[in-house]
């Protein structure tokens, strides 16, 4: 059962990686489709205004575009971390069963060898 779950994690990790790469390409071609980017770049001037002691300063939209692009990049790093976790967990679950199987085979071979020598 653990081996089956391990294969499930592997398949889920690869599927998530493929879907994430495709979606990341969409967001890089048209960043306005990324919700955080769209929200940051559509802020009204009143929300972009900073009050200073000598008056007010309106932050340019480019500042928020850079922040939006960084949020897309950070979400890509998060995707990579989740995919790495799924794949490494799946491999560890499969490898654990392989070791158990190897121990069982070695024990069986030793038992057969001891039975043949008599």
Outline of this structure?
Helix content is 77%, strand content 7%. The protein has 118 residues and is mainly α. It has one domain (2-116).
> How many E-type strands?
2
- Please report the number of helical segments: 3
- How many structural units, i.e. domains? 1
What's the N-to-C terminus distance? 38 Å
Write down the Rg: 27 Å
Main β-sheet, in a few words?
2 strands, antiparallel
Look at the helices and sheets and give the structural class. mainly alpha
Q: What general outline do the C-alpha atoms trace?
A: rod-shaped
Mean pLDDT: 89
Please write the string of helix (H) and strand (E) elements: HHEEH
Strand order of the largest sheet: 1-2
- Outline the low-pLDDT stretches: none
Q: Give the helix proportion (percent range).
A: over 70%
Our estimate of the beta-strand percent is 5-15%
Q: Can you describe what's shown?
A:
It is a single chain. This protein is mainly α. The protein has one domain (2-116). Helices cover 77% and strands 7% of the residues. It contains 3 helices and 2 strands; from the N terminus they run ααββα. The protein has helices spanning 2-29, 35-41, 61-116; strands spanning 49-52, 55-58. The chain has a two-stranded antiparallel sheet. A hairpin with a 2-residue loop joins β1 (49-52) and β2 (55-58). α1 packs antiparallel against α3 (61-116) and α2 (35-41) runs antiparallel to α3 (61-116). It is rod-shaped. The two termini are 38 Å apart. The mean pLDDT is 89.
